[in-house]
């Protein structure tokens, strides 16, 4: 069986080191926060100016002055801190974050990331912090389905969508397999309900076995 | 000169000229100076360039200013949101210009303007459409893109509290762009929930020192 979104999130969470400073992108990556082990010590960064962000706020906890990057009300934890936007992005751009996890439309075998714009002429472009995260975090993980709804692969020889960053992706976590990207090409670390041969047959990217 | 205290938001936005570049604080609605924007709508300045992270949410604040057709151009990182229908409609009708800037570049270009930095090189956006036409340089083996500062004629920001001098403190993630925008504009106007006497804000807690703040108006509680 291929993995559900929650199961993918659990796989990513397992690979994030204890005590890491981590930014989880808007959308599916936010699910990862539910899968850290108690006492993991992982500190979540949110681009709008906070470290050690807590879970989503409920009922009376909701405070319009305290939201995450998706503008969802969240909570603070003991040891949280607040800072302005230039400091927040210095944390990304200055290489201080250990890991960021982003969604993607496409990732190339060389680690190029496309996740901000489909290039459709009527689409309104919106980039947010994706380009800063892509070039700044020590490790960039992507979490996505391996195939688009139309069946086309999202791990590709070269991205056809406009790029977010060049050669920046280290790991790709998908519903069918986990891949490590590096100088030696694309290595399959793990498969879920399928085989390397089956995946190879559906991708235009040469795969190495772990 | 320490900050002037204005009786109301209308006094706080007086004199903003047509064609101004207006820096508008806030990330979504957190930290957005809604009362100052409402006053700017009444004040009447048009042909504005607005610099803000988003391009308006719902029908209030920045979205209301856009709906009044007072904005010629928006410079922002993330215009498209579930509730950005005002901007979306204007953009699709070709009635507003858009410059999309990576959020870190937006913050740092504002910071550079406030700090007297003429320009800076950064790897963000290298090899992407947002770096097209920009000067690049390879530094330590990595492509960097030249980014220019963004100077505002006016900054409209929301803070939590001011003292009589104009020293500001913020609350939680409503801080966001306020402190950097306050440094980057010729005229910085802050709306705050309350104004306290000098000495009532611990100097160790001041986030935006008064030198950056020109006008302050108290607008009462947030809700």
From TrEMBL, chain B:
The keyword Transferase applies. Keywords: Transferase. It holds the Pfam family CoA_trans. SUPFAM superfamilies: NagB/RpiA/CoA transferase-like (SSF100950). Belongs to the 3-oxoacid CoA-transferase subunit A family. This is 3-oxoacid CoA-transferase subunit A.
């Amino acid at each position: 069986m291929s993995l559900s979104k929650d199961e993918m999130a659990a796989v990513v969470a397992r690979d994030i080191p204890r005590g890491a400073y981590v930014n989880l992108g808007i959308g599916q990556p936010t699910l990862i926060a539910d899968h850290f082990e108690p006492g993991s010590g992982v500190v979540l960064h949110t681009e709008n100016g906070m470290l050690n962000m807590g879970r989503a706020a409920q009922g009376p906890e909701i405070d319009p002055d305290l939201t995450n990057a998706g503008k969802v009300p969240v909570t603070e934890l003991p040891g949280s801190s607040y800072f302005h936007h230039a400091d927040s992005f210095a944390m990304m751009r200055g290489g201080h974050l250990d890991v960021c996890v982003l969604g993607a439309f496409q990732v190339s075998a060389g680690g190029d990331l496309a996740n901000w714009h489909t290039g459709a002429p009527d689409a309104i472009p919106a980039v947010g912090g994706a380009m800063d995260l892509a070039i700044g975090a020590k490790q960039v993980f992507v979490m996505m389905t391996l195939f688009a709804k139309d069946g086309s692969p999202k791990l590709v020889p070269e991205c056809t969508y406009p790029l977010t960053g060049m050669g920046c992706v280290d790991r790709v976590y998908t519903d069918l397999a986990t891949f490590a990207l590096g100088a030696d090409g694309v290595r399959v670390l793990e498969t879920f309900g399928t085989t390397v041969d089956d995946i190879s047959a559906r991708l235009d990217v040469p795969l190495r076995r772990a | 000169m320490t900050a002037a205290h204005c009786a109301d938001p209308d006094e706080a936005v007086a004199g903003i000229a047509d064609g101004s570049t207006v820096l508008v604080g806030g990330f979504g609605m957190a930290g957005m100076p809604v009362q100052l924007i409402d006053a700017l709508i009444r004040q009447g300045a048009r042909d504005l360039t607005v610099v803000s992270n988003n391009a308006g949410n719902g029908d209030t604040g920045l979205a209301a200013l856009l709906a009044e057709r007072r904005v010629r151009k928006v410079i922002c990182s993330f215009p498209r949101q579930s509730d950005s229908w005002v901007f979306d409609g204007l953009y699709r009708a070709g009635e507003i210009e858009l410059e999309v800037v990576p959020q870190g570049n937006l913050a740092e270009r504002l910071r550079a303007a406030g700090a007297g930095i003429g320009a800076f090189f950064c790897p963000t956006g290298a090899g992407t459409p947002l770096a097209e036409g920009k000067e690049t340089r390879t530094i330590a083996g990595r492509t960097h893109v030249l980014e220019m500062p963004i100077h505002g004629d006016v900054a409209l920001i929301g803070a939590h509290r001011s003292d009589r001098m104009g020293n500001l403190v913020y609350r939680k993630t409503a801080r966001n762009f306020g402190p950097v925008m306050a440094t980057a504009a010729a005229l910085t106007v802050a709306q705050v929930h309350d104004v306290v006497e000098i000495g009532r804000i611990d100097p160790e807690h001041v986030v935006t020192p008064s030198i950056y703040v020109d006008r302050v108006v108290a607008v009462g509680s947030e809700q």
